[in-house]
Amino acid sequence: MPAQPPSAVGEGTFRTIVRDIPRLLRHPIWTRREHIGRGQGVLLIPGFGFGDRSLALARTWFAARGYRAIGSRTGLNVGCTTTMVERLERTLERHAEATGRKVIVFGQSRGGWLGRIVAVRRPDLVGVLVMLASAVLNPLGGRPRFLAVARVIARLGSAGIPG
Question: Among 1, 50, 62, 81, which residue has the fewest nearby CB atoms (within 10 Å)?
């Protein structure tokens, strides 16, 4: 079978998404079950180049089940790792105090790695770590295009331009 041109693959993917998302949203896992979370805190950490809005669906899902999910407030998640981890740690501390127990840390891509660092530093505050689409075997690996963007951002940061 000959390979499809990129536009046809994109159109097929779009059709699949349009067809499958309504089916997925009807799945029983989306049923409201407010008693499950019982107010447990969830800290949502977005991936590189994305903000809290990118995890809005996850936040809605957790809230519908009785969890107290909050965003990381890290902006677009492109800043210095040390600074971001320190900020996340403070947010985690406040959320654990507000909910009265350990927090679920839910990170997507780079957010998963940041969450992992925070969990190692503060195991007293993290009950569960979820690393969604986070590189585990080769965390420094990446596609050439992504690495080129990361180098530009690193140069801008070295020049004093905040991420």
Answer: 1
pLDDT band at 150 (very low <50, low <70, confident <90, very high): confident
Prediction pTM value: 0.73
Given a cut of 70, is residue 82 above it in pLDDT?
Answer: yes
The residues, any chain, with a CB within 8 Å of residue 102's CB and separated by 6 or more, are 40, 41, 96, 124, 125, 126, 127, 128
Q: What SS3 class is residue 103?
A: strand
Direct distance between the N- and C-terminal alpha carbons of the chain, in angstroms, rounded to an integer: 46
CATH 3.40.50.620 fits 33-158, yes or no: no
Instruction: Identify the DSSP state of 119.
Output: H
| Contacts of the segment 120-128: beta carbons below 8 A, 24+ positions apart | 121/85, 121/89, 122/89, 122/92, 122/93, 125/92, 125/93, 125/96, 126/92, 126/102, 127/40, 127/101, 127/102, 127/103, 128/102, 128/104
